[in-house]
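Recall the central idea of this unit: under ordinary conditions, the amino acid sequence of a chain determines the structure it adopts. In this exercise we apply that idea directly, starting from the sequence alone.
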Amino acid sequence: MKFTLVRKKMKGDVYYVYIGTSYRDPATGKPTWAYWEKFGKEAELLEADPCALEKIQAQVDALNARKDEEEIQEKMRKIMEAKDQTLKKINKEDLSIVEGIEKNSKKIIGILAIDKVYNLFGLDSFIYELCTKNHFKKNKITRIINHCKFLSEMRALIPASKQKTQIQRDMYFGDFSDILLHKIYRTLSELSEFKQEIVGHINKKLNLLIDNRDLTACFYDVTTYFFESTEEDEIRRFGFSKDNKINNVQVVMSLVIDRESMPIDYNVYIGNQSEGATLIPEIEKLKQKYNITKVVVVADRGLNNKVNTETLLRMGMDFVFAFKAKGTTKELKEKILNVDEKKSFIFYDENGNEKEVSTETAWYADFYYQDSGRCRLPEFAPEVYSYKNIEYEELNEILQFQNEFSSKYFAKEKETKEKNGRKNIYFDCNGTKRMIVTWSAKRARKDKKDRDRLVEKAKLLVANPSRLNCELKRGGKSFIKFHSDDKKSAELDIEKIKEQEKFDGYHVLITSLDQRSASAQDIIDAYSHLWTIEQSFRHLKTDLETRPIFVRRESRIRGHFVICYIALCIIRYIEYKLKKLNKPKGSETIINALNDVQISRIKYKNSYIISTFDFSEDCEDIFDALDIKHLSQTESAVGLRLKYGIDDLAPYWAKYDDKPRHRMVMPKGQGDQM
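Accordingly, the structure predicted from this sequence is:
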């Protein structure tokens, strides 16, 4: 038994300090590990006592050197009892008749909740219909159905590379005997061809499952997903990375969600695709696919440009966009900074009484302004990823969409033709737009703090000119100006710093909704829901570990995103059901609760019983929300089969052979990159 000082990194680069101990589990004979003592956040410890880590290390050394281990052994016994729960009395009989937990019989049964939602979506029967229409053989259909279900449920519960997912399948309660690695890769390629159909089918099911689903407002955003690779191909490209992975190739993903944070659609583009060109084709597709006649598109300022706003208006859509106040014209800046009337925010307390926020704390202004300009209709981002490998007919379809869209919404504009057949259309962006300016003291303090940090970084760069070439034109370097005669000499851009100080606390929105149809606070509230799509991206990237992506071929990359989208819909639906039950829980809580609950098969006299471990209150809420029967502390095999409609339990306890049936030769260093 040995004690160690542990610094564990959590989210947000926060470190926690523990004393950990390793020991050999007497039940299994395997080495294991447990916490001995927890001290909390490292930063707080060091703030209170700069020598805190040295003192804890001395405590660790003393523990390792102690001769009298009676106290340690007693505490270890308590830790093991808390970690490995023992069975309570079974039918009030003596536990001595229980011969013990059968080796390798522990299974995570929380997968039942994920399986319930997957079945509610009806994906097994829908994929069967798709495969039948494509005249697939029976064995192939069975393989696609089983592997799609397995990959989606495992992605929701324990996301990992495809190879690791296949290895970990015997941890979960289910019949995964036919899951093989080479079949997983084949299934990804085939699922990529069914992307549009699967997304449309899930939406139809969600329309039935969610009460009065509201599609009058959709929230749109774009993000990037990187690969552990530097090799470019038809879809993986270097581009602006939102994960700050500038040395990795990536793909771009767009996502549309509704007010309940339920996904509506997604798309994947080449890694260097500009996000502004993705919005209009996506909204046009939704309009045609779901017969949407009017919708409010809510998006961040990265998607706000004159082309998008004017095109949405011509499509009959409304919009709410964040506005880049610092980059606008001098006249509009003056109007934003010197608004005529500052209005107070109104809110309601717990008793329903109306309260007013002081303008010294926060305020808003609502006015119209005149916009003008001339734009060229851009080349929209195609759904297929590369012109290089698509056939001539598919290329014609892209050009046809572009030209049909132009004729539909820009028929009166003059046009010219280029050599590739694409129409060049120029149009005026003149018109009156509504602007809502908000200011808050809290945001002002944050803006000042962020800028001060960058100014300090800029000062260090000015003091060390050799580092200037290594920095990108952002962060601290954005506050530096260079002398025209000597690029190596630099100084702080005081004028720019003072200019940005003026906008501390300001946030600006523009919208096509007039003051009669929507109040300023309604529009601000609609935009505030945009954080839910950012939360969805975080959930995809962290809890579902969509990135880094461990597949290489384009069809498998597309199939990977199909699986991640299904998993996201499953978790979001569970969140919706819990919220409806007035017991809201986050995705991380849901995943941890379902992964904790386990069952084991235990030899009891001449038969077996099923025992449940760690069926927490969170898990009970999830099962209640999905109308799943609770697990008893002990169950008979027959009772378990009847409760959950299982025909044969034997495959569920199988120990799978992790060796692949067929040897797969991979290039050196590629690993799981297939």
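DSSP finds 21 helices and 23 strands in the chain.
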